[in-house]
Amino acid sequence: MARLPLIGVTACTRQLGSQSYHTAGDKYVRAVAVGAGGLPLVIPALAELIDQPTLLASLDGLLFTGSPSNIEPHHYQGSASEPGTPHDPGRDGTTLPLISAAVAAGIPVLGICRGFQEMNVAFGGTLHQKVHEVEGLMDHREPDDQPLEVQYAPRHPLHVQPGGILDGIGLPSEIQVNSIHGQGVERLAPGLRVEALAPDGLVEAFSVEGASSFALGVQWHPEWQVRSNPNYLAIFQAFGEACRKRAGKR
Ligand SMILES: N[C@@H](CCC(=O)NCCCC(=O)O)C(=O)O
Fold it and tell me: For the region Disordered, what residue ranges are annotated (predicted)?
């Protein structure tokens, strides 16, 4: 019997009480299990202590998760963050090198929100540090004083571009998505293809041109209640299918 694909899920470093932990949100590991049909494996944010060749040789897919923390701007030659900005150098040191290595090795990759931003930075792109302060761009942040159901509710339309992965898996040309981010793509990295745009022109999804397997980043959160939104579920199913194909080659 074919085994379940083993799908890495990136963790954040979190301080809980007086100690530090490696954490991955329940909605991400659950979406890997029920949406992609994979066996989730949480990858600690241990940076250079992770033996990446060994890890990549074991995985059939990788999900780069969202996080309230922001990528340290020196990774994209950005100006220093405002004091108090949440960062996670352990996570940056884990995910940024892992993305290009995974894509080069033909391992299916899905990046969500921070994970999407990490993909852009890993391939040489830059980020707006405060999208809401850029003239002409909308405020893409969630109403954080509201219950989670409201924060993650559909917030704006998205224009899916023809001929890409999202179009290919049957997403309509316009869908509604949630929006929970303060940063966003400034300069798209070379080799990334635009898959979807917000009404203000912000890039909300891209794929990696020439990748030998599924390699998609999305700025919104398809993992949120993945089974109740057919467009969100279609993304996880396509990712899972690519991971199963990879696992079948072992
Ligand atoms: N911090 C970045 C990335 C935003 C992001 O990933 N939000 C997710 C929050 C928690 C979660 O749902 O996992 C930004 O602000 O742009």
Answer: 73-95
Q: Is the CB of 178 under 6 A from ligand 1?
A: no
- Site to substitute for ligand 1 among 181, 202, 225, 232, most atoms within 8 A of C-beta: 181
Residue type, 137: L
d(CA 229, CA 204): 18
Q: List residues with catalytic annotation.
A: 113, 221, 223
Q: Is 113 in the pocket of ligand 1 (CB under 6 A)?
A: yes
The one-character DSSP state at 230 is H
Predicted-complex ipTM score: 0.99
- CA 98, distance to chain mean position in Å, is 13
In sequence order, the 6+-apart residues with CB closer than 8 A to the CB of 225 are: 27, 152, 232
Residue with tokens 């929100």: 113
Asked whether 120 and 192 are in contact (CB, 8 A), the reply is: yes
CA of 141 to the centre of ligand 1 (A): 9
Q: Ligand 1, residue 86: give the atom nearest the CA.
A: 1
Residue 188: Cβ within 10 Å count: 16
For the chain, the first-to-last Cα distance in angstroms comes to: 13
Report the separation in Å between the CA atom of 140 and the middle of ligand 1, taken as the mean of its atom positions: 11
Give which of 59, 48, 49, 54 is closest to 9, Cα–Cα.
Answer: 59
The confidence score (pLDDT) of residue 1 equals: 64
